[in-house]
Amino acid sequence: MAESTNTRKKTERRTDLLKIFLGLAIFLFFLLVNPFGMETLASKVLAVAILMIFWWISEAIPMPVVALLPLLLFPLLKISSISETATPYSNEVIFLFMGGFLIGLGIEKWGLHKRIALNIVSLTGTSGNKIILGFILSSGFISMWLSNTATTMMMYPIAASVIAVVFDMNEGERSKKNFALSMMLSIAYASNFGGIATIIGTPPNVAYVSFISKKYQYDISFFDWMFVAMPVAIFLLIFLYIVLVFIYPNHMKKNGALELMISSELKKLGPITKPEKRVLAIFLLTAVLWITRDMINQLHIVKLDDNMIAIFGAVCMFLVPSGNMQKPHERLLVWNDTHKMAWGILLLFGGGIALAAALEKSGIIHLMGGLLSSSSSQSVLLVILLVTVLSIFISEVMSNVAQVIVFAPLITGIAEAMNVNPFLLGIPMTLAASCASMLPMGTPPNAIVFSSGHIKIGEMIKAGWIMNLISIALIVLASYYLVPLVMHR
User: Do 297 and 303 touch, CB atoms closer than 8 A?
Assistant: First the structure.
């Protein structure tokens, strides 16, 4: 057994080395040969872009490390100076996500997320279908404010515990199998779908918002994003429940033992604690400020933006005492808590913005946008459909963050060449990137639940194919009818 594990590890190391050297070979080919006969600057940028995209897709080295390449290669190849290249790594929208991360850490540290999840499940009931509904609602809601990956990781052990109890209390093997399968799919898909509802819910949203902020100096407000994406998320969660209980029926009735387990877990948590109340208050205050920002700004007393509000919420976490009796002087967050934060995601955004800026500067985006738009139908609705379909299926095999970073400037170039509102194509591309449901590698939540052993690849493809089609329809309709109402360049 140990020998086979060592053999597998050696094979993986060789494969990773092959990916690294293959990426470098492709980079040198495009840099030295310039097969498309482009101008010198454009050929250099294209070579770096291809290297980054190849290593992102193949995961030859960690994605945040790939995102650091512009800081090395752009000055080395005289594409841009180090100061110019470094600027995107401190883009203001990156701090929006940082603030959201820190608020999420506070919620997670004091267990508020678990209390919310257990209470939702206890309210929905303990029959098989109602438990699935409870997990869809709790995962979807929490994912609107925490990252979809963090939500799935948090819900996974709770779901596993519930599955174990249900297995002990039921005899039908088919029913148990379908229940476990639906439970695991529900937390992954609901985390993905809930995450699209807010800017901070999933990294691709922040990646697109940061690109737009940089390109047009236009801030997509928290409310405007929710106006378009929230209806899509809500309907996706509704359809997810219908699809799961229809194609994988479990026929499980109300379960008294499960009610006792959930009740026992809630009793262990006890009454809501002072730290939880204070975290909840800061979270609600931040959310209200995000939603009412435009109304506050119209008073001309202060001028707020979403980034400032996120940092305000995060700073409050470090300022407000926890009220914990055992550690009376401890704040809701201390700096040591930040070791759990996904710092790599912030680097990834910075590298993506730097790459997008270089692609724009070199004229590659304009060239590709012109070529694609000239061959596209002039029907805006059809182009939105094509963009959505391509985005959702590409995301099945490519990191959705990397996908949005790479495609945001390209899609925007197409929109400009067609002389249409860039958000009509950019928003569906971004939302669809988070809705990949067919394969484990589509999103981290998919991979997490697939590792449970309760899901076979064919079963994920079956449910995922249906959810992909529903996602496409809802995203196209929302983008075509709602985006023009609130988003204008």
Answer: yes
Both tokens of residue 434? 């988070």
For residues 117 and 250, the answer to whether their CB atoms sit within 8 Å is no
For residue 135, count other CB atoms closer than 10 A to its CB.
Answer: 26
User: How far is C-alpha 468 from the chain's CA centre?
Assistant: 16
Calpha distance 82→70 (Å, rounded): 9
Rg (CA), the chain: 23
Q: How confident is the model over 345-360, as pLDDT tens digits?
A: 778 778 877 887 787 7
Residue with tokens 């590698």: 441
Q: Tell me how crowded residue 288 is: count the other CB atoms within 10 A of its CB.
A: 12
pLDDT at 121 over 80: no
Confidence class for position 192, pLDDT limits 50, 70, 90: very high
The two structure tokens encoding residue 341: 């934060």
Give the pLDDT of residue 465. 93
Q: Summarize the confidence of residues 203-221 as an average pLDDT.
A: 86
